[in-house]
Amino acid sequence: MWTPGKHVFVLLLTLVSTLRCRADTISEFAEDHDDDHNHEILRVLPDTYNWTHRPRIKGRWLDVTCAAHLLSFGAVSEQTMDFEVSLQVAQEWRDHRLANLTQNTWLPVDSGVQVWKPHVDFANTKSLDIATAEEETTMWVSREGVVNLIVRYDIKASCQMSLHAFPMDQQTCHIRLDGFDDTRLVWGLPSLMTMNTVPVISDATAFHSQFKLAGITAKSYVTSFLPSVPGKGCTFSEQTCDYADSDACQTNTKLCADDAGSEECDNCLYYTGICGNVTKPCDLLGKGDKSTYTSLEIQFHLSRRFAYHLMQMYVPSTFIVIMSWLSFWIEIGAVPARVCLGVLTVLTMTTQSSRSHAMQEVSYVRAIDIWIVACQLFVFTALVEYAVTYRWWLTENKGRRIIIDMEDKPTENGASPEHQPIEISGKCDSCNFVPTAAQNIDRVCRMVFPSLFVIFNITYWTVYLSA
Ligand SMILES: *[C@@H]1O[C@H](CO)[C@@H](O)[C@H](O)[C@H]1NC(C)=O
Ligand SMILES: *[C@@H]1O[C@H](CO)[C@@H](O)[C@H](O)[C@H]1NC(C)=O
Ligand SMILES: *[C@@H]1O[C@H](CO)[C@@H](O)[C@H](O)[C@H]1NC(C)=O
């Protein structure tokens, strides 16, 4: 049934989402609006109304129900320890002084009219922009005196990250909205946020981050400027939503471009995830010192997308380590080949390690640092192994040369002593199948190095992937 009130209501909803409205949709509504006799806008308030006064209520707390629509999420930076979100926050409260101003269900309020608004503030922001255009209607009043306010914020908020497990790490970032003047901020469903089924929903097509947003928690609790006052920390609602399947919305980025308005697209634009029950560990009423105030918090549970680091760091350095083992199969006498291979792998590994440092400088050891150091150790030891083997090989051949020299003494040739060992060792390889001790070192290393690397890998991945 199209009651006039409902009609205006739909019009308002459309205005709220003007950003997504196509021009033809707007003009369609504009035509309808000419026929609508009930369309009004609130420009003048009753003389008795004083906007600096808070609505009078029994008891301490004035309830303000809030909901949020996360419009974008991204730019998580370890360098500056912050992230960016843009979200639309709806607040609903009751102001009896504004009742009976209209016969309509909802009356838009002109942006020039000053109405009492709850004093709210984002706590951990580095920068905050109110992105709502000035001429845009953001406030509505119902016949019952219920006020709805919708504001869009672009926020850059700080997020302390612990990078010990980098790049297998998981982080939790949050934004916090504090309510002052004894307003009780509660997550709920304001009347105008009709697309919400849970207090915090997201546009899952607009997550741009090296992290996967694995879930969010919406929490309301009591806090205070002072330490250990009664009631501080009392959480009066908490709900966690699992965003595990949100990736489907991003992989198909053209989903909404091709098929705007489809159910599939809307499920992504107004993505809720799989939400748990609301828990209420503590009852707010009656709790709390005078210094307490309420806060709303959205926690973003992030898990790093690992594939990039796997391809950029782990796979290349594994290949470098394997390459360094090739040396054990090359003849000991082939000095240039073995030295080149050794030096090349050590240098390549060093380059690889400097790339890992470019990511983030921290005062502690990260998982990636342990990996890099281990790989450097492997390639470096392979080079050292050659130095030792070569030395040994030289001594062995020197001994052999003396024996052979004695045998060869009667024959007189003018060859210089330097040339003799090479010639003789060549002869000996063809006649003698028993490997020398130096060659045995190489043979053992062919087994020991890969085994140690496998053991290291098992330990490393078990520790970090299970943590
Ligand atoms: C509103 O109240 C404040 C203080 O209570 C007062 O100073 C101010 O003049 C009032 N404004 C109007 C328009 O009555
Ligand atoms: C609004 O009007 C209704 C009846 O028309 C009346 O019962 C109610 O008390 C009024 N409310 C206020 C706040 O004036
Ligand atoms: C959530 O609440 C419903 C009913 O209120 C209950 O059946 C269900 O077991 C609850 N789920 C959890 C995870 O607590």
Automatic annotation (TrEMBL):
One of its GO terms (biological process) is chloride transmembrane transport. PROSITE patterns: NEUROTR_ION_CHANNEL. It comes from the Eukaryota. Keywords: Cell membrane, Chloride, Chloride channel, Ion channel, Ion transport, Membrane, Signal, Transmembrane, Transmembrane helix, Transport. One of its GO terms (cellular component) is chloride channel complex. It is a multi-pass membrane protein. It is found in: Cell membrane; Membrane. Residues 1-23 form the signal peptide. Its main location: membrane. CDD domains: LGIC_TM_anion (cd19049). Residues 40-179 form the Neurotransmitter-gated ion-channel ligand-binding domain. The keyword Membrane applies. Pfam families: Neur_chan_LBD, Neur_chan_memb. The chain crosses the membrane at residues 306-326, 333-350, 370-393, 447-465. Residues 313-389 form the Neurotransmitter-gated ion-channel transmembrane domain. GO terms for molecular function: chloride channel activity; excitatory extracellular ligand-gated monoatomic ion channel activity; transmembrane signaling receptor activity. Belongs to the ligand-gated ion channel (TC 1.A.9) family. This is Glycine receptor subunit alpha-2-like. The gene is LOC118417546.
